[in-house]
Amino acid sequence: MINELFKDEVVTKAIVRDVELPYGAGTMALITLDNGFDHTKPSTFGPGGLTSLDEALDAVAGRSDLAAVGVVGKPFIFAVGADLKGAALVSEREQALAIGKLGHDAFRRLGELSVPSFAFVNGAAMGGGLEVALHCTYRTISSGVPAVALPECFLGLVPGWGGTQLLPRLIGPANALKLIIENPLAQNRMIKGRDAFKLGIADAMFEGADFLEESLRWAAQVLRGEVTVSRTDHTAEDWSKTIADARFLLDMKLHGANPAPYRALELVELARTASRDEGFDAEDQALADLLMGDELRAGLYSFDLVQRRAKRPAGAPDKALARKVTKVGVVGAGLMASQMALLFARRLEVPVVLTDLDRTRLDKGVAYVHAEVDKLHGKGRISGDQANRLKALVTGSLTKDAFADADFVIEAVFEDMKVKQKVFAEVEAVVSETCVLATNTSSLSLTEMGSELKHPERLVGFHFFNPVAVMPLLEIIRGHATDDATLATAFAVGRSLKKSSVLVKDAPAFVVNRLLTRFMGEVITAVDEGTPLEVADHALDGLGLPMTPFALLQLVGPAVGLHVSETLHAAFPDRFGVSENMAELVAAGKPGVYAPDFSLDPEAVAIFSGGTSPSTAEQVRERTLRALEQEIRIMLEEGVVAAAQDIDLCMILGAGWPFHLGGITPYLDRAGVARPRFLEPGVASVPA
């Protein structure tokens, strides 16, 4: 019934070979999970892979000569879960239910054999891959494993092949919920092998070089009784409080917008008392429900954007045109500039020099970078030698002459056109003719900025998002004069920085800031008109956005928000207003409308009172969504980006727009706001 959905499956085969264990411990049937490709194409499970594992277990289950069964992955990969391409094609609940049952029927056998089973986690273990290991009696893990995770809630699913039932009993409900809910909702955070061992997911940890050999030796000692693995009974813990606390945090973050984490929470709660059959059946039912929902399709659409489109940016020039960058200059030594300097040094491993007109400010910027390097060393993320090299790479200079041999110079100075033009004139006077000049402007015209340059073709927009090291998006802006070599170099640098780059036309505020300003502008206008601030600020809670509009304003700062709104008002006065109350908030020196304890600041709230035409929360939501639909439509007509998918990619990576929404355009399609639709029916939604 479901094989047709997975006709393009790259089958992960379960290959069995006998291994004689040391110390005379007997014979182990070692099953290797391998899809026939190298580590760049990780092993996944569709019907073919699950059937292969089931057949391998058939072959070993009846053997009386075995002392144990082991499972290991191909080099660098254990397994990374279900084949989601086929799952996205499910159109009937019976098909969805069959997928859940097929996984359970195969995996659970590892925990129900007549001999002990061992999972040797030699590489990345995610989703169903981690669940395979959880079904085994014992687990070892390599210290070099880069990723251990249950990312299903990130995509709109639950760990449906045993994860919600087995993990809480193994490491306790609180730790389990970190992997099942908290980490996926934190931009799909992964943990490493060492962390998994500390949590108790694995019983033993060995270095990667001789991992399998040491794991087999350890397994032999367990079988001989020389090593005893003790486990904690977590059923006596206060699961009720843990679940209640987790539900409270979910409500604060999602406001019920995404069903998957709530279903996962219910399943973890069930794990305390349910039998294996009851728990696994509940997982099947949850998986079937969620496979039929819009959130999964939206999550998979988001995942495809991040994993595929972001790696092949639409409109990017030929990579061969990119120039080599052997030294980077950063104009400015403030926080943003210092963050950029650290990132360039870490990723490019080339000299980076900051300049500023003030010695105190310059020294502070360099000191910040060095302090951050020391923090990385203190956390064990880099070695002492690496720390020393990084600190030696980042220096400061009071003159721009230090840029004479730089290949890439980026400015991060005050957001004022005249200031930036002056900076680039000074830089152009000392750098080579092939040096790329980049601006981190968030809203100003690139073309105007380069209008007085001798070589405006080498000016490019390179817009980071704060914090620089964390936010994955890089808006790369092409001015009217920017040439292909400059653009190719910018994209090459972006890749080296491990950023996802999107090509954007030189248009006011580009993509993210333009849409966020329109979004926030509608909410602020509603408050100016008399809508209670709390009503307007929470009107869009049902979308599950990472923060409310006024919380976002607090993060970016009212002065920055006001400046961007003024820039956009100058360009599009009919759609972008400038709030007099916002200007008053800035003049009052307020950091926002919230006090340090996150309560509303009465003085700030008073600034926004006085309007006489209040709206309901539904009216605020409606006007905001319609404004976003209009602005996106105009941006696509203007060619600001190549397609609606690029708008969604920018909002996901630059604004933290939830994966379960699929970006902004699929949500507007599903909500019936976009007419005509931005995407074809069935894209990021259940097929009609």
Write the layout of secondary structure elements.
Layout: E1 13-21, E2 26-34, H1 47-61, E3 66-73, E4 77-79, H2 84-87, H3 93-107, E5 117-121, E6 124-126, H4 128-135, E7 138-142, E8 148-149, H5 152-155, H6 163-171, H7 173-185, H8 193-199, E9 204-206, H9 211-223, H10 239-254, H11 259-271, H12 276-291, H13 294-307, E10 328-331, H14 335-348, E11 352-355, H15 359-378, H16 384-393, E12 394-397, E13 408-411, H17 417-428, E14 436-439, H18 446-449, E15 459-463, E16 473-478, H19 484-496, E17 500-505, H20 512-528, H21 533-537, H22 549-556, H23 558-571, H24 580-587, H25 602-607, H26 617-638, H27 644-655, H28 665-670
Parallel strand pairs: 2-3, 3-5, 4-6, 5-7, 6-8, 7-9, 10-11, 10-13, 11-12, 13-14, 14-15, 16-17
Antiparallel strand pairs: 1-2, 15-16
Give a written overview of the molecule.
There is one protein chain. By secondary structure, the chain is of the alpha/beta class. It is built from 28 helices and 17 strands. The strands form 3 sheets. Strands 12-11-10-13-14-15-16-17 form an 8-stranded mixed β-sheet, sandwiched between helices. Strand 10, helix 14 (335-348) and strand 11 (352-355) form a beta-alpha-beta unit. The two termini are 21 Å apart.
Task: Describe the structure using short key phrases.
six-stranded mixed β-sheet, single chain, 688 residues, globular, 12% strand, alpha/beta, 46% helix, eight-stranded mixed β-sheet
